[in-house]
Write a structure and sequence with these properties.
Shape: globular
CATH class: Alpha Beta
CATH architecture: 3-Layer(bba) Sandwich
Helix content: 25-40%
Strand content: 25-35%
Oligomer: single chain
Order of helices and strands: EHEEHEEEHEHEEEEEHEEEEHHEEHHHH
Bound molecules: flavin-adenine dinucleotide
CATH topology: FAD/NAD(P)-binding domain
Number of strands: 18
């Protein structure tokens, strides 16, 4: 038996943990490092059916029972008048039941189920790639030699700079806030309020827990300075339910960025997750694409062949699907410029068809 490939995974977010778990299950030897020593403040996640399917295939499907099954999307105008309802359970039938869950719960489930030893507080200092492998030195003074290095280090990936120094993350035109609060409003569905260039979304994520996401379109990230204004003031013209939800909790602020460069790899380094293809979150495909990346990468590296060819094959297999998600997300974002009268009419007439068009392809296996 040849020695199993020795793989370094950089970054223990969803993509890195999923990749480490999937690679180990295929019999590869994996080191997983994480720069942070403490978990970041997490908010919530909406996981469409293909994310649920991928997590089940990874072996963490049980953990999703701690989330809330989401059967419908309810689209409303900013005052809470219903524009459309989408039967998600029908679209994702035979794929996976969509779920709302806290980020912390998902991260804990991945760590516990996959039983991954994570070296925290460590990053890569130098990385030297040759015919024989990749020699790595770490920030804690240790070193190692690997067959493959997986860059799962998020939207501001340092590994991406090593793959293509010109591949920067780009501002995607929105700023956002996220928080989890009590579900005093009794919301059961994925529920959105649409204003002019402003969106407020609420998704149940646990017993009496509601994940809220608010965003504003801004042409320049510098305009985000106006975010100095309290969040609630940006949404003061929204209906009472939104104003009530915004009263109180501290929200986490960020700009939305995307990664469009598709170099993704060298001979022995491969980027996955947000490091490779971060997208505006309106398709809620970040976890789905990351876990699918992990499963496909494990399948690719678990097969026979030269490493460079295996990575090239992986990239060709993942590129069309992740590009599709980014393109759909960009198109959905572009509708923010529509006047509300036109947008509302389109949604009243065609919301289910638009959902089917945007997500139908993702029902197929990756
Ligand atoms: C506002 C917003 C809302 C979202 N909502 C959803 C949603 O509802 N549903 C959904 O599916 N997705 C959503 N996403 C996307 C989703 O969170 C991510 O796509 C997914 O978590 C995968 O991220 P990742 O693991 O690739 O990167 P990250 O989560 O960023 O993880 C990268 C990890 O690498 C570590 N790291 C970074 N640099 C180094 C280094 N040099 N050395 C070692 N470690 C390093 C970081 O500390 C971090 O732990 C949302 C994203 C945003 C921004």
């Amino acid at each position: 038996m040849p020695n199993p490939l020795h793989v370094l995974v950089v970054g223990a977010g969803v993509a890195g943990m999923a990749a480490a778990g999937a690679l180990e299950r295929r019999g590869l030897s994996v080191d997983l490092i994480e720069r942070r020593t403490q978990n970041p403040a997490g908010a919530g996640l909406f996981l469409p059916g293909n994310a649920v399917r991928a997590l089940a295939e990874l072996g963490v499907g049980d953990a999703l029972r701690d989330g809330v099954p989401i059967r419908r999307q309810r689209l409303q105008d900013h005052q809470g008048r219903t524009l459309a309802e989408i039967d998600m359970a029908a679209l994702w039938r035979d794929v996976g039941q969509p779920v709302g869950i806290t980020y912390d719960r998902l991260r804990t489930a991945l760590a516990e189920k996959l039983r991954l030893p994570i070296r925290t507080g460590v990053t890569v200092r130098t990385l030297d790639e040759s015919e024989a492998g990749v020699a790595v030195t770490f920030s804690d003074g240790t070193s190692g030699s690997y067959d493959v290095v997986v860059g799962a280090d998020g939207v501001h990936s340092e590994l991406r700079r090593m793959v293509n120094p010109a591949a920067e993350a780009r501002y995607a035109g929105q700023i956002c806030w996220r928080f989890v609060t009590g579900n005093t409003a009794g919301i059961h569905d994925w529920t959105v309020w649409l204003g002019r260039g402003a969106t407020f979304l609420a998704v149940p994520v646990g017993a009496d827990r509601l994940y809220c996401y608010a965003d504003l379109s801004m042409p320049e990230p510098a305009a985000a300075a106006s975010a100095g204004m309290p969040l609630a003031e940006h949404f003061s013209h929204f209906g009472g339910e939104v104003r009530d939800l915004l009263a109180g909790p501290d929200a986490h602020f960020s700009t939305i960025e995307e990664v469009t460069d598709s170099t993704w790899r060298t001979r022995r380094i491969i980027l996955i997750g947000d490091a490779a293809h971060a997208s505006s979150p309106n398709m809620a495909q970040g976890v789905a694409m990351s876990v699918e990346d992990a499963l496909v990468l494990a399948e690719s590296l678990g097969g026979p062949g030269e490493i460079e060819q295996l990575l090239a094959r992986y990239r060709l297999r993942r590129l069309p699907r992740t590009r599709w998600v980014q393109a759909r997300a960009r198109r959905r974002d572009s509708t923010r410029g529509m006047t509300p009268v036109v947008r509302d009419a389109v949604l009243r007439l065609a919301a289910s068809r638009i959902y089917e068009r945007d997500y139908g392809l993702l029902r197929d296996r990756p």
